[in-house]
Amino acid sequence: MNHSTNGHRLKGALVGYGFIGSRGHIPAYSKRRDVDIVAVVDGCAARLELASQQIHNVRTYASVQDLFRSGLHLDFIDVATPPSDHFSISLEALRRGVHVLCEKPLTTAAGDAEALAEAAVQSHRVVFPCHNYRFAPTIRAIDDIISSGRIGRVRSVTLATFRPTHAKGVPEWNPDWRRQRRWSGGGIAMDHGSHTFYLAFDWLDAWPTSLTAKMLNSEPERWDTEDDFSATLIFPGERTAHVHMTWTAGARSVIYTLHGERGAIIARDDDIEVVTPRTNGTSGDVSWDVDRTVTSSSWMDASHTEWFNAMFDRFLTAIESHDYAGEDMLDACRCVAVIGEAYASSADACHERRLTTPSGFERRSSHPDRRPAGDIALDAPPVSAVPGV
Questions:
Q1: pTM higher than 0.85 for the full model?
Q2: What are 78's strand-pairing partners?
Q3: From CA 226, how far away is CA 219, in angstroms rounded?
Q4: What angle do CA 380, 381, 382 make, to 5 degrees?
Q5: Nearest-5° angle of CA 26, CA 33, CA 134?
Q6: pLDDT for 266-290, tens place per residue?
Q7: For residues 226 and 186, is the Cβ–Cβ distance under 8 A?
């Protein structure tokens, strides 16, 4: 795979050599002819040793400070640490004039996400979120059906994510970091909410205006994060998204339904049904036509490496077009804001929370027409030695 990068191979550093970095991102980079991963950063010595064995001629560093102090030329960093360090690492990279690709969630607080968007514009460097579900064949097929007008304007969606447990981190460090707020910033809402919410934004072609949410923790004696999440989001025009995510399911699956003015889409993993009504001209009776297709999205592969390069191409396009805080980035900011307000709603007896859009943020289209944000002072906490996801 190749992409126009002004005739040179981009040099990148992977910050965090955990499961998603080593099993998702690195295998995808190895298929490209326009990128070299020249450095890996991880706070776990055993993971750095593994990176040295698996990546030819890679340099390894125990901290982001060590990486930048080395003077190594970098075009971008790929942030694949636990979310608690996303903001400080990304902001430090912008200060150093380096583009940022960042795993979800972009940050664990809405104010930090907005600060990154504005810092990207100030530094003339791209910050781009790893919203890789957009590039799954199932999701692309759904998008094509919506774009065709076949079911009309989408009026409501349901998005359900079933997992029998939280995704485990690498054994050399901390396999259960996703259940520890100090590292994760939250439970399944923080870990998986971004995927759910940006798909809802795309399919309803808007950002939500309010929400109500409920969260549960089935093992409070062990963990300080939720493992079950439900929410209703209200969008302009009184359209709705109903969301459920759980780490307590009996099987791994995603189930999405989209209901339009002239039909519906029902997707369960790789299986897609398009249901449209047909009215008998004589009797007026309504029957239902069901078209079934099967995609190949590899939903059971938690690394999602097959979706990575299409997403990375979009990151490169943003770099080449100087799209420093584009639609993908602004969607990431709104995802973090929705997650934060969902926590607030659940803590307040599920009361409705209004969602306000910051000045300078505008979602123009489900086909990104990227819009920069404003200005901000570049402030961030110190960057620590960080492990990989």
A1: yes
A2: 14, 101
A3: 9
A4: 120
A5: 60
A6: 999 999 999 999 988 777 788 999 9
A7: yes
CA dist 101 and 199 (Å) reads 19
The beta strand positions in 81-182, using DSSP E, are 99-102, 127-129, 154-162
Contact status, residue 132 vs residue 307, Cβ threshold 8 Å: yes
| Closest to 264 in 3D by CA, of 274, 278, 254 | 274
Residue 372, SS3 per DSSP: coil
Position 130, amino acid: C
What digits encode the pLDDT tens for the residues 209-234? 999 999 999 999 999 999 999 999 99
Distance CA 79, CA 92 (A): 12
Q: What is the CATH number of domain 134-294?
A: 3.30.360.10
Please say whether the beta carbons of 100 and 319 come within 8 A. Answer: no
- Beta bridge partners of residue 291, listed in sequence order: 274
Helix (H) or strand (E) holding 92: helix 86-95
Q: Is the CB of residue 138 less than 8 Å from the CB of residue 257?
A: no
N- to C-terminal Cα separation, the chain: 26
The encoded tokens of residue 325 equal 């805080």
What pairs with residue 245 in β-bridges?
161, 229
Largest CA distance in the chain: 78
Distance CA 199, CA 46 (A): 36
In the chain, where the domains are located? 134-294
